[in-house]
Amino acid sequence: MIEFSQVTVTYPDAARPVLSDVSLVVEEGELCLVAGPTGAGKSTLLGALNGLVPHFTGGRLSGRVVVGGFDTSLHPPRELASIVGVVGQDPLSGFVTDTVEEELAYAMEQLAVPPDVMRKRVEETLDLLGIADLRNRPLRTLSGGQQQRVAIGSVLTAHPSVVVLDEPTSALDPTAAEDVLAAITRLVHDLGTTVIVAEHRMERVAQYADRLLYLPGDGSVRSGPPAEIFETSAIAPPIAELGRLAGWSPLPLSVRDARRLAGPLRSRLRKLSVVGRSLSVTGSALDVREVVVRYGDVLAVRGVDLRVGPGEVVALMGRNGSGKSSLLWAVQGSGPRSAGKVDVGGVDPASLKPRVARQRVGLVPQTPADLLYLDSVDAECAQADTESQVPAGTARKLLDRLTPGIAGEAHPGDLSEGQRLSLVLAIQLASAPPVILLDEPTRGLDYHAKRRFAAALRELASQGHAIVLATHDVEFVATAATRVAVMAEGELVADGPTKEVVVASPAFAPQVAKILAPEPWLTVDEVAEALT
Ligand SMILES: Nc1ncnc2c1ncn2[C@@H]1O[C@H](COP(=O)(O)OP(=O)(O)OP(=O)(O)O)[C@@H](O)[C@H]1O
Ligand SMILES: Nc1ncnc2c1ncn2[C@@H]1O[C@H](COP(=O)(O)OP(=O)(O)OP(=O)(O)O)[C@@H](O)[C@H]1O
């Protein structure tokens, strides 16, 4: 269905090609996971499938890409649209209509699908993705995860023979991610659709994948069964890393398979204790009282109380649309707040000018690109140093720590998703306000980058900063957060130490916890530390 023959892609001014002499075949009806480090070229590979690369991104592509019998160099993306459906990394920028229903119907209208078929498929898709109650909503008013579901739905309705998804679950809560992947797997089985998914949260996808295309970052692509490639790959999901540590062979990819193998490891660990990271918190850096956020008829946040002490890293979790982003923006002061009080060091940030408020409460938004407007990485870093009155080079040092190797002269718009996020994180963390809020801050980051980011957050916390991050990334929460607060329908419904909250809830438990339950281990690092 898909064939790359000696494909090389080079972006203008790049020192070396992103993809170098890549040849591979993906069969019809395969579900294929594309993985590898941040900036390795995954989106580039995906873009080559519908001709976006190089027709729209610039750069040069040599070799041949054939999809469903069409050579993508001879057919512009518009002509390939009936064969290849693409869901990009930023759903909002891909929307062409105003409301949910219109968006779901749009691709079918372009293909002149008969109205009765169209109607039926829209209804099916609304149910399949659990968004029936949002059907008349303007797309701009949806939460990040709701937008992502609509974006996926709008591609599925047209029944293309190849579906390409770039990090499709990054904004989805864990349960929604499972549902969406189940829907996609059903497509593969029932319609023989070929699905290509790039995903950093491999723990969510690896078990469904027939094939892994692994990009180590040197321009090459390895193609094969996931379990085989994970034996040696630098980036692998926690389940595979645990399997490597325990010497399991072949490596399991589902929690169920791993549990069958984990008996001996569990008994060994039972005699050891988890290295505790207990925290005694004194005082409060952030005090949120009875905060309410209302948008017209939608009550997004219903009287939330939250106190965060210096040194805490609080993960705000909860279903899509449960009010996490609304709460963060209301706390930071630039979002709507219908009632309630926020206290940061004796002041309500909403009462301050935005510039002054930012020195007390920083917020990294869900679409971090909004914060970048200069024309090079160096310029952004220099500006951040000046604005936050920190020594020159501070932001750049942080950036190198999070994701090394990004060229200073690169245009922020040309960076990969993970590189761009790292840049925004570096800029925001350089100013290091006492309270740092982060909205879904791990998109595009590989497991190593997330470890380094977690370490940077812990370091800030140990210096007395208070950190709140809204996220669906259960593996990241397990490494980074000291405490977890769960929201449901605008209210806080659970709040406690990370270990207690995530082990108690299957939806929020990381893979290691599920495999080793009832033993209280959350990460491969903890297990490795105890075994040495
Ligand atoms: N339009 C462009 N012009 C110049 N360089 C680009 C362009 N698009 C991507 N790049 C560079 O090519 C490399 C690969 O980017 P790509 O987006 O394909 O990576 P990725 O593996 O998808 O990354 P992520 O995991 O962060 O999403 C990066 O170094 C990026 O900076
Ligand atoms: N401008 C708006 N107008 C109307 N409703 C809105 C608006 N912004 C958000 N909402 C609704 O408020 C609710 C909470 O949204 P919010 O973005 O805070 O949720 P969230 O927990 O951050 O979700 P996600 O995990 O998907 O990012 C959702 O039902 C959303 O559709």
Features:
alpha/beta; six-stranded mixed β-sheet; 532 residues; globular; Rossmann fold; nucleotide-binding; binds adenosine-5'-triphosphate; ATP-binding; 19 strands
Walk me through this protein's architecture.
The strands form four sheets. Strands 6-7-8-3-9-10 form a six-stranded mixed β-sheet, sandwiched between helices. The chain has a six-stranded mixed β-sheet with strand order 15-16-17-13-18-19, sandwiched between helices. The chain has a four-stranded antiparallel β-sheet with strand order 2-1-4-5, covered by helices on one side. It has 23 helices and 19 strands. Helix content is 38%, strand content 21%. The chain is an alpha/beta fold and 532 residues long. α5 crosses α6 and α5 runs parallel beside α7. The mean pLDDT is 92. It has a domain at 286-370 and 433-531: P-loop containing nucleotide triphosphate hydrolases (Rossmann fold). The protein is globular and about 65 Å long. It binds adenosine-5'-triphosphate (2 copies). One adenosine-5'-triphosphate (ATP) binds at residues 11, 18, 38-44, 57-58, 410, 414-419, 444.
What order do the helices and strands come in, and which of them pair?
Layout: E1 2-10, E2 19-26, E3 31-35, H1 42-49, H2 52-55, E4 60-67, E5 70-71, H3 77-80, E6 84-87, H4 91-94, H5 100-110, H6 115-128, H7 144-156, E7 162-166, H8 174-191, E8 194-198, H9 202-205, E9 211-214, E10 222-224, H10 226-230, H11 238-246, H12 255-261, H13 263-270, E11 286-295, E12 298-308, E13 313-318, H14 324-332, E14 339-343, H15 354-360, E15 361-364, H16 377-387, H17 394-402, H18 417-431, E16 435-439, H19 447-462, E17 466-470, H20 474-480, E18 483-488, E19 491-497, H21 498-504, H22 511-516, H23 524-531
Parallel strand pairs: 3-8, 3-9, 6-7, 7-8, 13-17, 13-18, 15-16, 16-17
Antiparallel strand pairs: 1-2, 1-4, 4-5, 9-10, 11-12, 11-14, 18-19
Helix pairs in contact: 5-6, 5-7, 16-18, 17-18
The structure holds adenosine-5'-triphosphate (2 copies).
